[in-house]
Amino acid sequence: MSLRLRLNLLVAGLNLGFLAALTWLMVDNHRSAIQEEIEAAHRVTIQMLGTAAQTSRVFGSAPAVMFDYLKSLGRVRANEIRLYSDDGVLRYESPPSTYKAGRRAPDGFEALMRPKLATTVIGLPGARIQIVPDASRAILDAWDSVTAIFLLGLGFVAVLHVALLLFLRHLLRPTEADALRLVATTRQLAENREVIRLIQTGVEEERKRLARELHDELGQSVTAIRLIAASIARGNGSGGAVPGSAKIDEIAASLYDSVHRIVRELRPAVLEQPDLAAALADLGREWRVRHPEIELDLKLEGDLGDLGEAMTLAVFRCVQEALTNALKHAQASRVELAVRRRDGRLEASIEDNGRGVAADGPPGSGHGLVGMRERVVALGGRLEAAAGAEGGFRVSMSLPLPGDSE
Ligand SMILES: Nc1ncnc2c1ncn2[C@@H]1O[C@H](COP(=O)(O)OP(=O)(O)OP(=O)(O)O)[C@@H](O)[C@H]1O
Ligand SMILES: [Mg+2]
After folding, report:
1. pTM: predicted TM-score of the whole model, two decimal places
2. How far is the CA of 268 from the centre of ligand 1 (A)?
């Protein structure tokens, strides 16, 4: 969720909370006021009609006297008055209120506000007066006042909300200086990446040149030595085999193998045809032959054949260095290499079950990890090197694949 949206929700929540509290306070105040008012009006009406009832008894025909009295009295505030004869016939009913005639508060609001007062009945000889408390006008007044203040409050908090957000937007808007700094930093980063990329390309070119020299010069010289040694061993020269010539041939053969291995490391097949899956499979095969005591588990997922030369080479070199590190430092019996292409990224990890590193990470003396990180960062990725999940050491990297949508 964006910062702006979070601020919006926070401000709206606070405003609505404030409005709800204000409304509830008003409703509660009105309810107590209505209870008090209707109770008082009802009590006064009872007293008044009680006195009138006693007087009417004195004057004989109470219902008739009372009828005339009530008619002349008209409506009493917040009470409905009815006169019934003993046989239940309604003789008189006070007129409805003309105040805000034809309107009522909503049922729910009325139910919430209605005071708890019972109907009062005053008995007369031959008749009875029923006094029903009627809070509907007071409740309507309360409804009008609560809705007016609620709407006013709503308008106020809406204006406050907008003003506050405009202010925050102004406050959080990046200044021109910020924008310029950001542009400069981005440019600097891009330049750094480009420099690293050029250095890596230069290093690879130099390796290629060295591989060529080694192969063409040393390789051919060693081959020549082997041929001569073999010839001497067969006794083709001055007649009779020269002692030690077979040994020279053997040493030259081993030197030849070493030169070839170094040439392969300096200029792996991946440089000729950038297929990461094939290159890693080759690397795995060679590793298993040369280090049968360390189990290598290779897991390749997704299409790794068209990653482009830069990425293929970077990942290959990183894997090469991580495997060399596992050999040099880990004393591991197992190494797991996993490379997969997923969600627009290339992810690779090399994890061993060796002695691992101290809790504060690997010591920073060598160049291997630094070089790996530089290669990965130059391609916009990230690299982590730390203790593995079950001890040992783990190097993991994640690189964005250009053109692959995440
Ligand atoms: N698999 C591993 N197990 C244990 N420690 C490791 C492992 N890989 C790296 N380290 C530690 O991290 C350090 C840094 O590794 P790095 O590859 O940067 O340097 P190096 O291998 O010592 O030297 P260089 O790679 O320059 O020849 C190593 O010296 C070692 O202490
Ligand atoms: Mg190293």
Report:
1. 0.53
2. 22
